[in-house]
Design a protein that fits this description.
This protein has 248 residues and is α+β, with helices and mostly antiparallel strands. It contains six helices and nine strands, in the order αββββββββαααβαα.
Length: 248
């Protein structure tokens, strides 16, 4: 309690607080936009899927070719997907905190759908927008691009209906895991190819916007963390803060 703290005057504190608050508000707005876009895109896909009289197993929609592993040296913290880096409640992906103690990980390609397989009731899912690698606790779904598109597959897997099924068929009590054999048999309504293509054309720009918003949020978060100590130390002129933020 006897330590000394250097503080700017109260008016400067308020202005600093407003700058940080504005950045935080923009991040929250992007997050809400993404939530709405993802839900809407899945609803569009599910509306087409549930109307279809043709029913098939999920495994028939997936690329059956072997998914190669890649060296952990080819993966960065921004491109490594683990069960802990996937956010709960379908909110995408955080930057991983550390690397796994393995030499290779499962390869991830743009358009893959990654689902956390530990405690599936947490509903962890991400539509990959970059190359990378994933842990064994994450299931990587890859559309075969003949029967179904990546966007349509994502809409199916994003739905509560899918996560409720995975949770109900999971194995274990304390740390339940999705049963991959049961997941492969998940029933999917599959419309005609032209319907799938039309739906995907609508959904694709939504998923691209989600990716852009996520990238902007990463930049805004880095900017906030960079600005705060400099503002408190008086290293940045508050009268010129807009220019600094635009050039950051």
């Amino acid at each position: 309690m006897q330590s000394r703290i250097e503080l700017p005057d109260i008016e400067t504190q308020r202005r600093i607080g407003q700058v940080i608050s504005d950045l935080h508000a923009k991040v929250e707005l992007n997050q809400q936009i993404n939530k709405n876009l993802l839900k809407l895109s899945s609803n569009i896909v599910m509306a087409a899927s549930l109307k279809s009289e043709r029913i098939t197993d999920l495994q028939t929609l997936l690329d059956s070719s072997r998914k190669a592993n890649i060296s952990i040296d080819e993966v960065s913290l921004d491109t490594y997907v683990s069960n802990t880096s996937l956010r709960a409640n379908k909110r995408g992906l955080d930057t991983a905190e550390d690397y796994p103690s393995v030499k290779t990980v499962r390869a991830v390609e743009p358009g893959d759908v990654l689902v956390g397989n530990i405690r599936p009731y947490f509903k962890k899912i991400w539509f990959a927008d970059r190359k990378g690698g994933a842990s064994n606790d994450v299931i990587t779904f890859r559309a075969d691009n003949t029967t179904v598109t990546p966007e349509f597959l994502f809409g199916i897997l994003y739905s509560d209906r899918f996560f409720d099924y995975v949770t109900a068929t999971s194995k274990g009590t304390k740390m339940p895991r999705g049963d991959k054999q049961a997941i492969a048999l998940y029933q999917v309504g599959l419309p005609d190819k032209d319907v799938i293509t039309s739906v995907s054309d609508v959904v694709n720009p939504m998923l691209e916007q989600v990716s852009l918003n996520e990238k902007q949020n990463q930049q805004l978060t880095k900017l906030r963390n960079l600005l705060l100590p400099k503002l408190l130390a008086g290293d940045i002129d508050l009268s010129n803060i807009e220019t600094v933020m635009n050039n950051a």
